[in-house]
Design a protein that fits this description.
The complex is a heterotrimer of chains A (about 325), B (about 280) and C (about 300). Chain A has about 325 residues and is α/β, with parallel strands linked by helices. Chain A has helices spanning about 40-50, 75-85, 95-100, 105-115, 120-135, 140-145, 155-165, 185-200, 210-215, 235-240, 245-250, 310-320; strands at about 5-15, 15-25, 30-35, 60-65, 70, 90, 170-175, 205-210, 220-225, 230-235, 300-305, 305-310.
């Protein structure tokens, strides 16, 4: 059984439904990429898993999230809190703002140790420095006493990763962990995350809009579009034979990446907002292969081997 | 009429509506005080001094037997008149200083803002006391004190607005068409920067009413027998144990006036959606 | 930190000079010769000239300012005309009362104001939040002297819990502190609430939630700490305001203090005393902002590093 399973979950925030019937799973030692443009529902997925939707006034309105046999959507907040930071950790998009500017970075890592691991202050400090050294932070003992504004962006993201590792989690959800960083630093951070999975056997969900990152790091990929799953497949399969027209377009965009983040140069049009979802297949207004029926029928997810695709055209081709 | 729309919108809210009614009523009393007041404000009648409120004197009488209700009605004239007119002057000065500072920048900005910050860092009551020390007590010095005490916040607000607006395309366009600095500043920039400043001015009018009352109470504002809300109370302290109503009613009226101004101002801020802008500067 | 302190202190010098010029000018801007206020009616021109010379009023203004400032730095503020004592003595007698009242009111309004503001922020938009902020709004809309008089009427006259006036014992301080404090509480609570709600929206708060820190701890340990930064700024700016409140409240409660001295002297046109009192209050305002800057630098590493 998988470590984490999302079983047809829907997320609502007030009247909006930014996530619709999403199913995913990930096991220990795996890296699952979640790809899509801004507004595709990637970050909602992260918040749903971490149980943080109430912070933005949202909730999981349907489906189930199972983590190591525990149904999370029904878990009392106090129990959920004991999981967060310990068994599941979040790495956020912007290390510039995800650290508290008026506390030393060391104190922010130590906090996880004293909170979840029953460590005393001194033990937490030692462990923090140890982890910082493993993440190749030079002069970790000094950095431990420094404030976020005294560190570079890449160094700050390492601190956030150290914070995530402090609880020795089974699952790390990394929401665009490199978007705010320089290109050279991006590769380093991704490599650090990949090494962690390989060495420690934890599960990593890597949320990104960059197919290049997916190719470099992931084992399997979920492509999201406008709150729905477009395609879910092993990474080799996705690049060798992308099925969904949106996936194809995304892969076609790799070369142009770096010019634009969040929107895709290669695909005409923009992703619709949560209140302006088109009928039928939500991708049809931008799809080169759309036929009139696409505007009417919501394409069901079809299993094609281990993969799942939500596109009627693909299904018809496959079935001849 | 475009300017009326937000006012009406604010007046239709739960907090803005009653507040607007109270403010209109107060202004009405101020304007028609001579018609509404049952007695002249300065008519002394010593036999009926310090009388409790009754059917004849709705709010009682003071130590000279003057009708408190009549004095409070006339007081609305003086207190609101002084507060509103000197606040208008304060806004005007603040807008000009902030406009010049924001538009020209450089040393003009530094000099003007240094002057304005100097007044900004000292509490209004101290500025008022300094000015009264120089000019002497009276309504005139109260007006000057309010004008000087508050203009800094309007200058800062205007400056922030002007700096934000300066880069707009239509300003560039006006400049390319050969508009003079004065024309750009006074015809294009300041009118567009005015809304938050006017609302801040309206809210500050409540503070001005309190400042006027404080100065009047200490005998440094309106001089006897003129009945500003503060000055009415000035004579009441000595009699506070005999005739507490002389203190009670004017204070309540001030509270009602200031609460109404704050509530309506708050509703207006939401109606205009300028809460963020008011925090600048 | 030391260099930061030194720099802030240097920045105060021009402000102090500006303040001293304004206060020095009071006596010269008053209509008539400054000496007219000392002279008895009907004094001879010779006596006036002699007095003018004695007080140095026949010198050029700049020279007079220099002499005045020189004496000021040595603690000589001149002599009171009506009270016939050195102004410095009068201030020394009254200052402790004002300091006691001012600091008690400051502590009171900060502690209660921050608590109320934090509770309101945690229960944002609830009935409790609205009711609390409503009461506070009402509390800040009456003149403080009026509030003081009402306190006297209710708690001193009707209930007899506290003395009506004076400064003989601690009970005499309760009503003045409450009066000044209520306005302060309103201000502090409002700023605390807004600052906490602002801080709560920041990314690092999401991170704290993701780390499994409890909501209560996030609010009371982390967000509150951030919210204290604007609150400290406000308190620094408003120390003068609290002293200003003390000015009027001392008078209402017939307490000795700088405020009572100032208002009495203003009414008697005892200008040297007025100058002395205003100078002290001005200096208090300056020290207040300095103190706030220092506390802020101690709390926020970004501010410390910006300077060094």
């Amino acid at each position: 059984m998988a470590l984490l399973t999302l079983d047809t979950i829907a997320v609502t925030i007030g009247q909006a439904e930014p996530l619709d019937r999403l199913s995913l799973d990930i096991d220990r030692g795996e890296i699952l990429g979640i790809v899509g443009e801004s507004g595709s529902g990637k970050s909602m997925t992260a918040l749903a898993i971490m149980g943080l939707l109430p912070l933005i006034g949202g909730k999981v309105s349907a489906g189930a999230i199972r983590f190591d046999g525990v149904e999370l959507t029904k878990l009392p907040e106090a129990d959920y809190r004991r999981l967060r930071g310990k068994r599941m950790a979040l790495i956020t998009q912007n290390p510039m703002t995800s650290l508290d500017p008026i506390r030393t970075v060391g104190a922010q890592i130590d906090q996880v140790g004293t909170l979840h691991m029953g460590m005393r202050a001194e033990a937490a400090r030692e462990r923090s420095i140890e982890i910082m050294e493993q993440l190749r932070i030079p002069d970790a003992a000094t950095v431990h006493g420094q404030y976020p504004h005294q560190l570079s962006g890449g160094m700050k993201q390492r601190i956030v990763i150290a914070m995530a590792l402090m609880g020795e989690p089974d699952l790390i959800v990394a929401d665009e962990p490199t978007t705010a960083l320089d290109v050279t630093i991006q590769a380093q951070i991704i490599q650090i995350l990949v090494d962690l999975v390989r060495q420690r056997g934890l599960a990593l969900i890597l949320i990104t809009h960059d197919m290049g990152v997916v190719a470099q790091a992931c084992d399997k990929v979920a492509v999201l579009y406008a709150g729905r799953l477009a395609e879910f497949a092993a990474v080799g399969e996705i690049f060798a034979s992308p099925r969904h027209p949106y996936t194809r377009a995304l892969i076609g965009c790799i070369a142009k990446e770096g010019q634009a983040s969040g929107s895709l140069v290669g695909i005409p049009g923009t992703i619709p907002g949560v209140f302006a979802y088109p009928s039928g297949c939500r991708y049809h207004p931008r799809c080169a292969l759309a036929v009139p029926a696409c505007a009417v029928n919501v394409p069901p997810e079809q299993r094609l081997g281990a993969a799942r695709v939500a596109c009627d055209w693909v299904t018809e081709v496959a079935h001849g | 009429m475009r300017a009326l729309a937000p006012l009406l919108k604010a007046a239709r809210t739960l907090r803005g509506g009653p507040a607007a009614l109270v403010l209109l009523a107060l202004v009405f009393c101020a304007i028609f005080a001579p018609l509404l007041a049952p007695f002249p404000y300065d008519a002394m009648h010593l036999p009926s001094a310090n009388m409790e409120p009754d059917a004849k004197h709705w709010m009682g009488t003071d130590e000279f037997g003057r009708d408190l209700f009549s004095r409070i009605l006339y007081g609305a004239r003086i207190s609101l008149g002084v507060a509103v007119s000197s606040m208008a002057a304060s806004v005007l000065i603040g807008v000009i200083i902030g406009g010049l500072a924001g538009y020209f920048g450089g040393w003009v900005d530094r000099t003007l803002m240094a002057i304005s910050d100097m007044t900004w860092s000292f509490p209004e009551i101290l500025i008022a006391l300094v000015l009264i020390a120089i000019i002497g007590p009276g309504l005139g010095s109260t007006a000057v004190a309010i004008t000087v005490g508050y203009f800094a916040q309007f200058a800062r607000l205007t400056r922030a607005q002007i700096i934000a607006l300066k880069g707009e395309t239509y300003i560039e366009a006006a400049r390319n068409l050969g508009a003079s600095d004065a024309a750009i500043l006074f015809r294009h920039l300041i009118p567009n920067a005015m809304t938050p400043v006017l609302v801040a001015g309206m809210l500050a009018t409540g503070d001005a009413i309190i400042l006027e009352a404080t100065l009047g109470f200490f005998g440094l504002g309106a001089q006897p027998p003129l009945p500003s809300w503060g000055a009415i109370m000035s004579s009441g302290t000595a009699q506070i144990f005999i005739a507490p109503w002389v203190i009670l009613y004017p204070g309540l009226v001030i509270a009602v006036a200031v609460v109404s101004i704050n509530l309506f101002g708050d509703a207006l801020i939401d109606a205009l959606d300028i809460r963020g802008k008011l925090r600048e500067g | 930190m030391i260099s930061y302190f030194a720099r802030r202190l240097l920045l105060l010098i021009p402000v102090f000079l500006g303040l001293s010029v304004v206060i020095f000018m009071i006596i010269h801007l008053v209509p008539g010769d400054p000496i007219d206020h000392i002279l008895q009616i009907g004094s001879s021109p010779e006596r006036k000239a002699a007095l003018m010379a004695k007080y140095g009023f026949d010198q050029p203004l700049l020279v007079q300012y220099g002499i005045w400032l020189g004496k000021l730095v040595q603690g000589d503020l001149g002599d009171a005309i009506i009270l016939k004592q050195p102004v410095s003595t009068l201030i020394a007698q009254n200052l402790p009362y004002s300091l006691a009242l001012g600091s008690a009111a400051l502590v009171f309004s900060t502690v209660i104001g921050v608590t109320i503001g934090a509770l309101a922020a945690m229960a944002k938009d609830s009935f409790f939040d609205r009711a609390l902020m409503g009461i506070i709004l009402a509390g800040s809309t009456v003149p403080s002297f009026w509030l003081g008089l009402m306190m006297i009427l209710i708690f001193a006259v009707e209930l007899g819990w506290f003395p009506v006036s004076g400064a003989k014992n601690w009970q005499a301080m309760v009503l003045p502190v409450l009066t000044i404090g209520l306005g302060g509480i309103a201000l502090v609570a409002r700023v605390t609430r807004v600052a906490m709600l602002d801080a709560a929206r920041q990314d690092f708060v999401l991170m704290l939630h993701a780390k499994g820190v409890s909501r209560r701890e996030i609010y009371l340990r982390h967000i509150l700490r951030h919210a204290m930064l604007p609150v400290v700024t406000l308190l620094g700016l408003k120390i003068g305001w609290i002293l200003g409140g003390a000015v009027t409240i001392e008078f209402v409660f017939a307490r000795p203090g700088l405020g009572s001295l100032l208002i009495t002297s203003l009414n008697q046109r005892d200008y040297p005393v007025v100058q002395g009192c205003l100078l002290m209050l001005g200096i208090a305002v300056m020290l207040g902002t300095l103190l706030a800057d220092i506390v802020q630098a101690a709390m926020d590493p970004r501010i410390r590093d910006r300077v060094s």
